[in-house]
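Quick entry between incubations.
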Amino acid sequence: MPTPHYGQPRYRAIADELRNRIEGGIIPPGTLLPAESKLTAEFRASRGTIRQAIAILREEGLTATEHGRGTYVKTDMRSSSAHRQTGSDVQQSIISADAYLAALFQVDMGAEIIETEVISRTADKVVSVTRTYRLPR
Amino acid sequence: MPTPHYGQPRYRAIADELRNRIEGGIIPPGTLLPAESKLTAEFRASRGTIRQAIAILREEGLTATEHGRGTYVKTDMRSSSAHRQTGSDVQQSIISADAYLAALFQVDMGAEIIETEVISRTADKVVSVTRTYRLPR
DNA sequence: AGAAATTTGTCCGTATGTATC
DNA sequence: AGATACATACGGACAAATTTC
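Done. Structure below.
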């Protein structure tokens, strides 16, 4: 049971399987996925592993999850996909240092800096936006 | 990615960063820290490392963790504080919302937004620069 | 209207294997 | 060899939102 992580990890395999069912129409848009507890039984994986798999689908924009309700398949508006606002909370990107940051970090202007943006919401309302800059390590 | 721990270990650096955010008011007393899973994403560290960092804050009495709920910042009654050795500059200003922030906060462009900047240093070197935006109330 | 069951969210502790300093 | 850190995985427990009875 422990962790033979040769090759592909289990949560990825499970995500693949679920994705296939969604795209194959077995789990139609708008309907709920089986509860996490059902999925642990079916795949004989721990809940954490199941949740990792679902997290992948959520990042891909295939599903959305609501506390106390479940995870449902998004009614796919595929034309607009892939761009912006998948609603993920943490975004990282590499920017180049402006004069201010360069001076602080004691690097040249234009040097690579990692920017992390965290958007925190409560009840779908944005409460704060935090951007953290640090040097790559 | 693996383990260049020149000087101070990762979990200590992360603890310092979180402490600075707390003392800088970015994470106000009474509010919850981001979940372990969010912190692993933001700092790109493993769960074990994040948990070590939070353990430090807990030992310092800065935070308390409730099982199943989260880790919140304690309402610090003893402001004797003595200003820890790792320094941080905090600066607050009012800016006007650009298109991006306006959209997130659902306000008009140009609306007032409070920006808090925390510069954390360890041994006179800037470790991170964090800017937090929130609405006035 | 209220209690119970369901379901997701989060934390706890532990374990294994890999890799680097 | 030991400390640090990563990724993966398990099982358990409590918290909170939603649904069902």
